[in-house]
Amino acid sequence: MDQFTLNLIVVGITFAIYIGIAIWARAGSTAEFYAAGQGVNPIMNGMATGADWMSAASFISMAGIIALAPAGGYQQSAFLMGWTGGYVLLALLLAPYLRKFGKFTVPEFIGDRFYSTTARLVAVICLIVISVTYVIGQMRGVGVTFSRFLEVSTDMGLYIGAAIVFAYAVLGGMKGITYTQVAQYIVLIIAYTIPAIFISLALTGNFFPQLGLIGSYAPSNGEISMLAKLDSLVTELGFTAYTAETSNMFNMILFTMALMIGTAGLPHVIIRFFTVPKVADARSSAGWALVFIALLYTVAPAVGAMARLNLTTTFWPGAVTGPALSAPALSIADIESKPELSWINTWKATGLLNFEDRNGDGMIQYFNEPAAVAAANKAVADAQKALAEAAADADKAPLEAAVTEAQAAQAAALAEAKLGDKSLAELGLVGNELTKVDNDIMVLANPEIAALPGWVVALVAAGGLAAALSTAAGLLLAISSAISHDLIKGALNPNISEKGELLAARISMAVAIGVATWLGLNPPGFAAQVVALAFGLAAATIFPALMMGIFSKRINKEGAILGMLAGLVFTAVYIFLYLGWFFIPGTNVYANTPANHFFGISPLSIGTIGALVNFGVAWIVSMATKAPPREVVDLVESIRIPRGAGKAQAH
């Protein structure tokens, strides 16, 4: 059976399961649509939360960004530390108290705690901005996965994924999504760990990838560790050592903190804890979620390192047993003729991987092209393009002179730049010929790079789609409930019937799917990067409001409203300065490079500063204005005392 047919069968079976569950668990009331009737078992809720949490960023992009990080994999470990650490904060500081409150949504808690419809509406705005930003990354993950495994364009893959989400999320609401996410967790964790086990056995002889990461490199007969082998190869090719420490620890700390408090402030994760019967179950399900998440997150560093090693040894076959340059690079003839290398052209067709034989030697040399060489190569290309596009009757002498001058500068740059103990000129190299490897393909391509069986490749396709679709559904539900429950019922039409509210929820979710699909066509970065931006926004808006609402009796509505607005505006403006206003390409004020970041703080890390702005503004304004009324103080005390919360509904 060919790979395409196998992919269709495996992915088709999983989709049939998801839609079947949605039909079986169709929501018939607003309680079931928003909170699954508040009767979900804590272990099952932990598994669903794990699927909701482990998005395309976790499954598809995280290991890829760790694998291909220009500054080494260590710096990107912030994703692992921040995302898992945030769950500890969520379990200890937020989940049980929000479940004790006994309502459906985060804005509803903020509106009641800060005794203000305006506060509730500001929370709705923050929630929608966060969720829409987050869902862009999921839709990109869906498009990337479909484009490869169903052999369609990335855009078409995005449309197919949107249709699947529409089918089970709009129909089932939180009840359908919960049970669908349990199935999706099982699919994604199997799909992630099985290839990792195969690859770990091949590279290190260890069954457990976690041990393989620190184990010996098998082809060297145990003489060198796997990470030492990887370090030696990437440094030989001009890259930063894989295990090198970060050059900007301050930014890494801020980034890790932004991910941690952003995790604890993500509305689509928080609402999962409204679905369990009791307060104790909220804390328990957070613990179970952390266990289920750890099953993937402890494997991710090994997947990233092994993917980078396999990619390098694929394009430098001699690197398997010796230095990278000890044998010629991979030839184009081998790419075209060997079945085990067919994945290269297949991924090239998606536009997410590309190569170019710049020196015409029939091989693809992969290395870190020095900046001076890259600039010289661009200057030659620009000069040659200007000459080629000149009018037939134009004076071409100045253009020809410009080409000659650019080529002389290129030759000097190639003679100056070295790879190992030889210059690029001596090696006959013009520049890096593996011109594009998208971070988001590394996990999906990993089984093919390692020449694993076809059924494993198909399983990874199903897992990647499960990860992206599960989180997309949770985010879309958060957006839908914010609009229908908090905006329409809470502010615009308090007397709306339950049937009308349920219809409004489904319509708003359908609209949200359309908007998310449109934004996913032109994402502002890799899946993990886009998701990190959403975490920054959550850290700067929702998390401080929830923390102050639960643990402070003095913060009032004026402080909460202005604090959230200040955190949102400050963080969003800083992000837009580097990534474009509202993520529109070409509208950024500054290039998103470390040299342009204020105090070295990247847009991915600014959420921590935004949270401090939120806390500071809220405290100052609250101290300068009237204290909250007595009934609000009593509400805070009631939330803090663990005495049960609301009646559960059996399923």
From TrEMBL:
The chain crosses the membrane at residues 6-25, 53-72, 78-98, 119-136, 156-173, 185-208, 252-274, 286-307, 455-483, 503-521, 527-548, 560-584, 604-621. Keywords: Cell membrane, Ion transport, Membrane, Sodium, Sodium transport, Symport, Transmembrane, Transmembrane helix, Transport. GO terms for biological process: carboxylic acid transport; sodium ion transport. It holds the Pfam family SSF. The keyword Transmembrane applies. The keyword Cell membrane applies. It is a multi-pass membrane protein. CDD domains: SLC5sbd_u4. GO terms for molecular function: symporter activity. It comes from the Bacteria. Belongs to the sodium:solute symporter (SSF) (TC 2.A.21) family. This is Cation acetate symporter. It comes from Aliigemmobacter aestuarii.
